[in-house]
Design brief:
This protein is α+β, with helices and mostly antiparallel strands. It is 47% helix and 19% strand. The protein has a five-stranded mixed β-barrel.
């Protein structure tokens, strides 16, 4: 998978842009929140990416921040929400405002975003509520790069197949204090075995 690109912006026409890396032009789609932070064409840029492989195409999506990419990846896991709707959401609302809507169960604010109907907004709120238990998401996002040890441990537990709420509960049971990611995962898994 392509995790990031660093190169020169060859062209940009929202939501598409082309980044030239070592003589190869990568076509990407990006949310408007990313476009607002892009330098002019011809400038150097580094974007985090997510590759979506479909039957008829490979589509590369670009993001200015890790928080945007993380939310995009969470959104496309929601039933009935594909990359286009996730891109529309990121273009219409900031990451922290989206999490605020989910926590407040404010479906009406989400329906103001083009392409988001009442049923989709309600489904997003229901399915994203558990994911808000993630340490870095519950506060509205961490720093623009490195995750805390607790956030990395949470993502590792979810990758291992634990439900988001269950992963958050296991980490709470791992004990307080500053620990390494590996130590947090080890203690959380030991807690799971004891149950």
């Amino acid at each position: 998978m392509i995790g990031s690109l660093r190169g020169r912006i060859a062209s940009k026409s929202p939501p598409q842009l082309t980044v030239e890396v070592g003589g190869v032009g990568y076509e990407l789609e990006a949310p408007m929140s990313t476009f607002f932070h892009l330098p002019p064409a011809g400038s150097e840029v580094r974007l985090l990416t997510h590759l979506v492989v479909r039957e008829d195409a490979h589509v590369l999506y670009g993001f200015a921040t890790e928080e945007e990419r993380r939310l995009f990846r969470s959104l496309i896991k929601v039933s009935g929400v594909g990359p286009k709707i996730a891109l529309a959401l990121l273009s219409g609302i900031s990451v922290s405002d989206f999490y605020g809507c989910v926590q407040a169960q404010d479906a009406s604010s989400l329906t103001r975003i083009p392409g988001i109907g009442r049923k989709t907004a309600e489904r997003l709120i229901v399915e994203m509520r558990d994911r808000l238990a993630a340490p870095e998401l519950a506060v509205g996002g961490g720093g623009a790069g490195a995750l805390s040890a607790e956030a990395e441990a949470y993502e590792a537990l979810v990758a291992l197949g634990y439900r988001p709420a269950e992963a958050a509960r296991l980490l709470k049971g791992a004990g307080p204090g500053t620990q390494s990611t590996e130590e947090l995962i080890r203690r959380a898994l030991q807690g799971a075995v004891r149950e």
